[in-house]
Amino acid sequence: GEDVEQSLFLSVREGDSSVINCTYTDSSSTYLYWYKQEPGAGLQLLTYIFSNMDMKQDQRLTVLLNKKDKHLSLRIADTQTGDSAIYFCAESLSGYSTLTFGKGTMLLVSP
Amino acid sequence: EAQVTQNPRYLITVTGKKLTVTCSQNMNHEYMSWYRQDPGLGLRQIYYSMNVEVTDKGDVPEGYKVSRKEKRNFPLILESPSPNQTSLYFCASSPRLGGTEQYFGPGTRLTVT
Question: Which residues of chain B does A45 touch, with a Cβ-Cβ cutoff of 8 Å?
Fold first, then answer.
């Protein structure tokens, strides 16, 4: 079945880059997502990437996809304390199917 | 403002006492779903609905019911809550199945004693 794995915790200093990693098992996955959950709030879609892309950049966010290794990463440049949150990786078989979420990575940014 | 609302935000109840968590969206979205979030387990989908009167089970539907009588509302019903249903619940909506435009509610923290 589908499975999405993430490391549970990452700590960085303000101004550094953060890299959050995710692996998935279903090679049929065509959409891969990153969501952000701030304390006490729901999930917010940050970005997504199609499986035929290697990279997607959006301001401070860079998503890298290695489809051969089924590995997805989210890089946050110049990490700020406001980036402290839980980040969820998710995948779906198409843009019209249900999502499978990872367990989430807690990012802690210290001043 | 486009939003998904849930009520209540916090609820403490006792085993066996029926409860309903409401979810409402103002974006005319067809697709709505319920998730539960538990430490170390991430988000797991409970039920989803692709339109009015169309609902289907997600990954963990046991002990829950849903209904979709109106497009904007998708209540989650626990007929006989048990302590293992203590969790953080999220409702989400999107114009279609899939995650490219999915909006989440703020969450309902439920404790069953």
Answer: 99-102
The pLDDT score that the predictor gives to residue A2 is 60
> Which one-letter DSSP state was computed for residue A40?
T
CA distance A56 to chain B (A): 15
CB-nearest to B99 from A41, A92, A102 is A92
Structure tokens at A4: 């999405």
CB-based contact (8 Å) between B107 and chain A? yes
In this structure, of A6-10, A26-30, A81-85, the range with the lowest mean pLDDT score is A26-30
**Rg over CA atoms, chain A:** 13
Parts of chain B with a pLDDT under 50: none
Closest partner CB to A97 (pick from B41, B44, B98): B98
**pLDDT on residue A64:** 96
Query: Minimal Cα distance from B95: which residue of A?
Result: A96
A57: pLDDT confidence band, cut at 50, 70 and 90? very high
Q: Which among A92, A96, A106 has a CA at the least distance from the CA of A4? A: A92
Q: How far apart are CA A53 and CA B25, in angstroms?
A: 32
